[in-house]
Amino acid sequence: MTVDTAEPVIPTRRRARYWLFGLLLLAGAGGLLWGSRGLAHLALWRGREAARNHDWRTAESWLAEAQSWHPLGGESTFAWARLNRRLGRIDVMSSALQDAADAGFSPRKLQREVWLAEAQSGRMQSLDAKLGNLLVAGEDLPAICEAYVLGCLLNYRLNDALRLLDLWQADFPDDPQPHYLRGRLIEHSTDFEGAANEYRRAVELASGHGAATYNLGRALLALQNTKEALRAYEQATPILYAPQPGLVGQAHCLRLLGRLDEARSRLDEALASPADDPEVAWRLAGEPVDAAASRVPAEYGHVELAAENYPEAEKWLRQALEADPHGWRNRYSLATALRQQGKTEEAAAHSERVEATKQALAECDRLIVKLRKVPDDVEARFTLGRTFLQHVSEKQGVVWLRSVLDHDPQHQPTHRLLADFYRDHADENPEFAALADYHRRQLQADQEPQDVTEDE
């Protein structure tokens, strides 16, 4: 019989409790009883340091501990709200901000956090109006810059993002986040070598930056450097918020290298350890959240397609399309699997839909190039919003449409389309019914909500 001499793995939350309890014992032994307030300050400091290093799981554990020890006049609750904003959990953030307000925390800082949340989700009006004053004040600049740049990326305001990144990087040369976000921005222009260099620099500054390591893998894949991409994904997997994106990235590389059994093994591991919150896991890896639930079955389908195991490929690809009906690449692969099994009629229907999507996306590419030169082109933004809504991503489509209203608040086709969208999806979010009513009220007397399904 063998004896396992490895140290037991203690979950992060429990480690935080043991660490604090140990300090409490030491403090008591030395006659320096810190009390709950001192322990809350310590946990708060540890949580903020972890967040600064993009160690999100550890940050969650420490900041939860800080709240459990003492509210610190709302400071620990505010830190919890900020973390959840960065994780994209806006409902948790809103609740925590209210708790911080009830505890007497600074109303000015609470309002600023709301502006940052709006900006990073693509609603830029509030932060646009206040940005100059906030930058001059010089308080909390990295948080402000990050939210603003994320909003600019969503709204395709690349020049605005670049200008702020330059300022951010000049003032905080040791911060990895400007390099990471610059890499994301450079990828938009398909400069994958430049993007890879920025991701490498971010990792040099913060070796635990899981998103930068993961995105380096994606850039290397685009450069057809599959073996190096595989190494990047392997390094990213244990330091990401959840391992699933890294495991899927590894499986993708292994498939391209012809190592199909190893690819299946990675995907089985991903299925055996699903993310608690898949959208957060993929968002923090720098990927769109719409397709989060489809990523594992989609890659499994492509592995089976490469193995010419067409019935299995069909099974997995159907699961992927059920999770993300807009995944046109998965639809194309499903058509291939069906055709190989003689299911030509269904395959033809999927292929027809793929061709319609590809034509729409080709028009989007043209419009995006146009927006680089004329970012205020309202009609281009409207067409992009409508196309994304119908063919690519409803979330991104809504962001594009809201950007239209930033430039023309009375744009009637946009209000009509948003009124229809929120009405049709009212059962998905309790706020959608009110949003549908709001956009309906913005329509002029001779404009009635109707489904907009064809190009105008």
From TrEMBL:
Cross-referenced Pfam families: TPR_16, TPR_19
UniProt TPR repeat ranges: 294-327
Regions crossing the membrane: 18-36
This protein's UniProt keywords: Membrane, Repeat, TPR repeat, Transmembrane, Transmembrane helix
InterPro entries registered for this protein in UniProt: CellSynth/LPSAsmb/PSIAsmb, TPR-like_helical_dom_sf, TPR_rpt
PANTHER family with a match to the protein in the record: LIPOPOLYSACCHARIDE ASSEMBLY PROTEIN B (PTHR45586:SF1), TPR REPEAT-CONTAINING PROTEIN PA4667 (PTHR45586)
Protein name per Swiss-Prot or TrEMBL: Tetratricopeptide repeat protein
Biological source species: Maioricimonas rarisocia
